[in-house]
Amino acid sequence: MLTISQLAAYAGVTVRAVRHYHAKGLLPEPERDHSGYRRYDAAAVVELVRIRTLADAGVPLSRVHELLGAGDEEFAAAVADIDRRLRAEIRERQRHRDRIAQLAAGDSLALPAEVVAYLDRMRELGFHNRLIEVERDSWILIAAQMPDQVPGLMVIKRQQIEHEGLRRLYLDIGELVDCGPDDPRLPVLADRVSAFLEAAAAEASGVEDEHPVSDELVDLLDAAFLESFPCAPRLLELLEERGWTGWTNVKRIDRAT
Predict the structure, then answer these.
(1) Whether the predicted pLDDT of 106 surpasses 70
(2) Chain-wide mean pLDDT for the chain?
(3) Closest of 170, 160, 178 to residue 231, by C-alpha
(4) What band does 256 get if pLDDT is binned at 50, 70 and 90?
(5) Which end of the chain has fewer CB atoms within 10 angstroms, the N or the C?
(6) Which residues are within 8 A (CB) of 199 and not within 5 positions of it... i.e. 6 or more apart?
(7) Residues 15, 5: contact at Cβ < 8 Å?
(8) Where are the domains positioned within the chain?
(9) Hey, what CATH topology would domain 4-104 get?
(10) Does residue 59 register a pLDDT over 90?
């Protein structure tokens, strides 16, 4: 005969759990012997193991009580149902594991493969991490709003990043990520950006934009740029002085208006 602590140890549960099962009416509570202790036999161990197994499988205690009194056929059917539910939970947990694996993979969590490759190319070319982070976050927004346009836009971006003049501009912008609005390098950089825009505008004259971005998305992307670089507001002011407005969708200022 076993004490309650020995019973709990045999069944792999705590004494508190045994008392809880007593309170729920799942496990009969024996009378105390002449020494004042409750003693349990082998049948109590078997019953407690069955209770623990069902409870560990996630069966509600109210259902456990029902199953313990069920016939063999009903019990087998209930166990089969529990097994189906557990297999469904395993599949769901596997999906969670897959998502965690994606999270560990970094950029690929929320970005198409071509954008991930583009960001990797930026790293290869030595772009500042802050610039890469802004690009990554911007493309998360773009991919969420206009996923079908991403492949075409990425073709343009890959061409731009391989353009030596534009790449040099972005690399130099990366050197100014922590500079303030009074940094003397900003006017020089604004001159270079303006000259590049002039050349690009002349080259693209008469060519319609194949991948227009909504004004709302442009505002979000510009806001991300302004929030990421202390010098960004001043740089945009200098560009306006040179006849250009915006950052994501740069446009020539119409002085007539």
Answers:
(1) no
(2) 85
(3) 178
(4) low
(5) C
(6) none
(7) yes
(8) 4-104, 107-252
(9) Multidrug-efflux Transporter Regulator; Chain: A; Domain 2 (1.10.1660)
(10) no
- Token output for 204: 């693209």
Q: 96 with 133: CB under 8 angstroms?
A: no
Q: Are 171 and 126 in contact (CB under 8 A)?
A: yes
Q: What is the pLDDT of residues 170-180, one digit of tens each?
A: 898 888 888 99
Three-state helix/strand/coil letters over the chain: CECHHHHHHHHCCCHHHHHHHHHCCCCCCCCECCCCCECECHHHHHHHHHHHHHHHCCCCHHHHHHHHCCCHHHHHHHHHHHHHHHHHHHHHHHHHHHHHHHHHCHHHHCCCHHHHHHHHHHHHCCCCHHHHHHHHHHHHHHHHHCHHHHHHHHHHHHHHHCCHHHHHHHHHHHCCCCCCCCCCHHHHHHHHHHHHHHHHHHHCCCCCCCCCCCHHHHHHHHHHHHHHCCCHHHHHHHHHHCCEECCCCCEECCCCC
Residue type, 62: S
Rounded average pLDDT over 217-243: 91
HSE-CB for 244 with a 13 A CA cutoff: 21
State the first-to-last Cα distance of the chain, in angstroms, to the nearest integer. Answer: 99
Q: Give the residue among 194, 207, 198 at the shortest CA–CA distance from 240.
A: 194
